[in-house]
Design goal:
By secondary structure, this protein is an all-beta fold. The chain has no helices and 43 strands.
Length: about 475
Amino acid sequence: MFDVLGETPTDQVITGHEGSVTHIDLVVGHPQGRLLVTAGADDTVRLSSLATGGPVRALLTNGFAAASLGVRRVGRQWIVAVVTTDGQLHRIDLDSGRPIGLPQRVDAGPSVRLEIFDLGPNVCVSVQGNAHGLQLYDMVTGDRLGGQVLRQFATALCRVGDTLCVGGSDGIIGIWPTAHAADSVRVTAHEGRVLALGEIRGTSGVSAVLSVGEDNQIRCWDLVRRHELWRRRVLSPGPWEVPLVGCATIGRTADGRDFVATGEHGGRVRILVLRDGLPVAEQEFTVTDIVTALATGRVRGRDVLVVGTDSGRIVCWDVGAGRMFVYGPLPESPRWTTALALDPDGSGRLAVGGFDGTVREWSLPACRPLGSPPRPAHRGGVCGLAYTPTGLVGFGADARLVSYRGGARSRCCPWRCGTRVFPGSSTRTGTFVSASTTSPEGRSATSRARPPVTGRPRTPSCTRCGAPAVCWSSCPSGMT
């Protein structure tokens, strides 16, 4: 410590860091006297005393360097806020060194900056990054108070009762309990796009939501209190720029166990089995191809996970028994799989969509193709498939919503979306459809990428047969 006016050293403090000190903040007015909060090159945040000249305690040792930090007194509590380079906002009680709640997901990198200030009755933490822009959080509760809304599109949808959850390409989850924008809540969940969202049964029997992101994280959310329950890392962070987890899905077994599966580009598939909302077991297997799509369901009384690959090979894993059920042969003509759907009737009928725009149905466990050879149903890749009570429907990168009937031969119905009627053989939406969700009764909604409008996805119907359809209206995450 130096006297600024006299430019002479006044105190010497040993912080306990192994290496250089990178960040420092002075605490004035604390009952223990003047204190220092420091971050070091050893990836720790520590508290030191100017009175004794020695370290007091370690506040954070999570293995990531601090990008920015600050200290503020809120009532009778002193809180330290730290943003680490892995993209997490930590709030720590200065006197005990204990974390306050779970970390909040923010922008990653060494250039992220943090500031603490008063905003009305709240003490706020602002985090400025490159991906999400400026975001504001409550210092005590960690709730997001507001911030910039950047352009993004929906990548995953999930319905929990009347609440709609939308995961975006920017890692933000929008929670819409009603159709009104004022009632919605935005949660910064992942660094990178959200790969999957799904409802699970929580610890107290109340529904919760699981999210899987490109940041290799699985996170569980309480929709009532709007906060995180727990998180699980699929892979350890590494120097790679391309995400290693390329797809994910969430399902439920017949005995009531939930599970989440992730597929990696290297061919490994991991399954985390849950009971009462908490992880209880793990399963893992490897295929020889790139894992490109996942789907869950039941086949001949078995709870299965179906894996699609870059070669077109079909692999089926028995989740209940924890072993391989079907390992299909390599097709004569390789075809990159982009979408999968299992018929909910348990017959083993599997719909497979390819990057070439073709859709074909297969019979499991025989891996036998059904119907005539596939014909292109889309000018571009198939983005999603779903079975409804009236048959198979799907959407593609050519911005068309199609009802497939008669096996591989597609017969398309005109769809009515809200007050607009789309005549002809299919629905043209103008841009690509990006995500979909289907309820057990067959009601579905999809989202497409387009500039934002007001509202939320709702379930349209076919003007010819009156059946519920996979279709779009408007997307609460900012795109429709």
